[in-house]
Amino acid sequence: xxxxxxxxxxxxxxxNGHPYSWSAIFNGYDPETMAGCPFPVIPEYLSRQTxxxxxxxxxxxxxxxxxxxxxSEHIARATRIxxxxxxxxxxxxxxxxxxxxxxxxxxxxxxxxxFLEAGLPIFIDKPIALNRNDLAIxxxxxxxxxxxxxxxxxxxxxEMQVSQSDxxxxxxxHHAYATAxxxxxxxxxxxxxxxxxxxxxxxxxxxxxxxxxxxxxxxxIAWQSGVSAAFATLGKxxxxxxxxxxxxxxxxxYVFQDTFAAFRASLATFVDSVRLRRCLIPHRDYExxxxxxxQGVL
Length: 298
Hints:
Number of helices: 10
Structural class: alpha/beta
Number of domains: 2
Order of helices and strands: EHHHEHEEHEHEHEHEEEEEHH
Distance between the termini: 51 Å
């Protein structure tokens, strides 16, 4: 029987409850304590799962650090984490891999550095970076291919996959339109990554137009191939998280729905990458995603 990987989790960032949800996906959770999670949607969707059968069982979150001890203690009780550290660097030597569960990308270079230098594989929460310079610094510190793993969970959401049947019905994809709630810096990646997977390699960007209206950002791009895409993060405005693809034959809408399944799939893929010691997301994917994110950072 394969020994369970020991994972260390780092958090938190404003508006992001991933230390609660990610840890529960590995460890299960205590419903009474989790009811006090400041993100009510997390206990709500966890309650629809069956534990331990829905957990990832070949890895456990064994160590946690957050900026506040009381927050660490609550997450640890809620998700059965045994060890709380006062300095996240103290995880080195005690865990097999790291979950950097903060989506404030401005902190990713500093917080990932000690783990990359120690040779630990690390899952960096989305987006990995807000510009190509920061991305190059992070990827340049890899000690081996695949040490860094980062993605939007929508990359692995079944409802966002473009099947071969879809492609046949759509024909060649000419345009994509995608929307997300909340802020560009944290949520644009959720629509950029699925669109890029759907349209494939299209060459260099030939045109970029970006506008901002209050808390809403709209980005329109066209590639050298002639394929185009429009991305909108709508701040406090209610909207679906998803994309519509427009092909020469038809169009189809894809709407994200199952948060737990997507998180679980992305975390399980990271565990696979650690065990296989293989790069499961190529650097060119990170570079293409971050290039578009950078265009909309105003």
